[in-house]
Write a structure and sequence with these properties.
The chain has helices spanning 2-33, 36-60, 63-86, 90-119, 144-147, 150-156, 172-181, 193-206, 220-224, 238-241, 265-271, 279-291, 350-356, 427-445, and strands at residues 123-125, 132-136, 160-163, 186-190, 209-213, 242-252, 255-257, 260-264, 299-303, 306-309, 313-318, 340-345, 366-371, 373-378, 382-387, 390-395, 398-412. It is an alpha+beta fold. Strands 1, 2, 3, 4, 5, 6, 7, 9, 10, 14 and 17 form an 11-stranded mixed sheet that branches. Helix 1 runs antiparallel to helix 4, helix 7 (172-181) packs parallel to helix 8 and helix 11 packs across helix 12 (279-291). The radius of gyration is 25 Å and the shape is globular. The two termini are 15 Å apart. The relative contact order is 0.14.
Length: 450
């Protein structure tokens, strides 16, 4: 009880620190600069708009116009900083930003204990597997399987391990099905998200637990499970002392995916044979035509009642990504909502490009939605798609759906990403936390016998 009380006191003071720092971040420019603070804000907003416009022209133009746009994009932030410096207000801006950073950090710390349990997946006690079967890609993630001795460590824990031969492509889903037929009671993969998804589909199909070993390059699925991506060997702890989570598995057609499916400009660019050897050059060459609809199919995405006409890009994710907190972009609060996340980008001019930098609430070119099914159509029989990082061509219409709680994931009890995942800065809740806890404490102190 005393420990709980101390935690509440710490939360209350962290919430107060967050609100005080946020107020100071706003008040400092007003006190020091007075009416000139309006010019500070105007310069920041104008600089942001010009930078975004320049970036849009870099991506959609070629030749001299692109070169001028590069100069504009690079010079605008420098010009804004120079303006602040000449007005002797650069320190005010820097201090205000520092106070705002302190406010956000304190706010997240205050809310971590109250919010973390909301994002944490329910854990179930799991018996130790007797016949685990693991597939490992020795080239994935630059050779993490060999660097961390994953094969040897897994075999020491009783697992049967199959190393993929990069020179002889194998059907990993078929390998997993064969292992299940032979009595495997757990399926796992050390590799990228695309390989993870294929074996996860078999695990869900057979009702077997699935083990994620984050030996790929990015491992977004592992990140949202809270696994230690810096040390893939810790994932193997789930074989001796693990717990089980129930998460959703998404499908594009009949193919499972654990992260996302992308359609449009990016998906088209990665299909190019030149992309692997010259990513930047290929992007700059292809994007002008793709973003201005001079090339590529015209897409329409339907997610429930939401229809996105002719977007340049559509991203469908297995559970929604966070969009309201820049520090949480690219992460999912939960993996068990039973909903697909949908992000549609439609930018037709520099003004809409500038709006994207202002956030989803004001960006007219950004559509954010959720649905159990998303259908993407086009004025073409086939469209390019990126499925968990794999470049594919799919027949239209393309249907994405989600299977709620279909996947049993075996994870270690100790995971560094839990419970920090899912903490947001909710200023209204922080204010309530700072005030109501203070009143509660005061009320207790006046009780008879207190």
């Amino acid at each position: 009880m005393e420990q709980l009380s101390r935690r509440h006191v710490a939360q209350r003071w962290l919430a107060r620190l967050a609100l005080t720092a946020a107020g100071a971040a706003v008040a400092l420019p007003l006190v020091v600069a007075g009416l000139r603070s309006i010019a500070l804000v105007a310069a920041a907003l104008g600089g942001t708009a010009l930078t975004a416009a320049g970036a849009w022209w870099v991506l959609t133009r070629r030749g001299v116009v692109r070169a001028l746009a590069v100069v504009l994009t690079a010079a605008t932030p420098l010009a804004v900083l120079a303006y602040y410096d000449r007005a002797n207000l650069l320190w005010v801006v820097a201090s205000s930003l520092g106070l705002w950073a302190l406010a956000v950090a304190a706010g997240r710390s205050a809310m971590r204990a109250t919010r973390a349990h909301e994002a944490r997946l329910r854990e179930r006690i799991a018996a130790r597997p007797r016949r685990p079967f693991l597939i490992m890609n020795p080239r994935s993630g630059g050779g993490k399987v060999g660097d961390f001795g994953l094969k040897e460590k897994a075999e020491a824990l009783g697992a049967r391990v199959v190393l993929l031969d990069p020179d002889q492509p194998q059907d990993v889903a078929e390998l997993a099905r064969r292992a299940a037929d032979e009595g495997a009671d757990l399926l796992g993969v050390a590799g990228g998200d695309g390989t993870q998804a294929l074996v996860a589909g078999v695990a869900a199909e057979r009702g077997l637990p699935f083990l994620v070993i984050c030996a790929g390059t990015r491992n977004h699925f592992a990140m949202d499970l809270g696994l230690d991506r810096a040390d893939p060997a810790t994932c193997l702890d789930a074989l001796r002392d693990g717990v089980e989570l129930r998460v959703d598995l998404a499908y594009v057609g009949d193919r499972p995916f654990v992260n996302n499916v992308s359609f449009g400009a990016y998906a088209a660019v990665v299909q190019s044979p030149a992309y692997r050897d010259d990513k930047v050059g290929t992007i700059l060459e292809l994007l002008p035509d793709l973003l201005t609809h001079r090339a590529g199919p015209r897409l329409t995405a339907t997610a429930g009642d939401t229809v996105i006409d002719e977007p340049q890009a559509v991203l469908v994710s297995n559970n929604p990504y966070r969009t309201d907190d820049p520090a949480g972009l690219g992460r999912r609060d939960r993996l068990d909502t039973g909903l697909l996340g949908v992000l549609g980008v439609k930018v037709d001019n520099a003004a809409q490009a500038a709006g994207l930098l202002m956030g989803p609430r004001v960006a007219s070119g950004l559509t954010v939605a959720t649905a159990r099914e998303v259908v993407t159509t086009a004025d073409a029989a086939e469209i390019e798609a990126g499925v968990d990082g794999e470049a594919l061509v799919l027949p239209t219409p393309v249907r994405c759906r989600i299977s709620h709680g279909a996947l049993r994931v075996r994870v270690p009890r100790s995971r560094p990403g839990v419970p920090a995942t899912g903490v947001r800065t909710d200023w209204r809740r922080l204010r309530k936390l700072a005030l109501t806890m203070g009143r509660t404490a005061a009320g207790r102190s006046h009780r008879p016998g207190a």
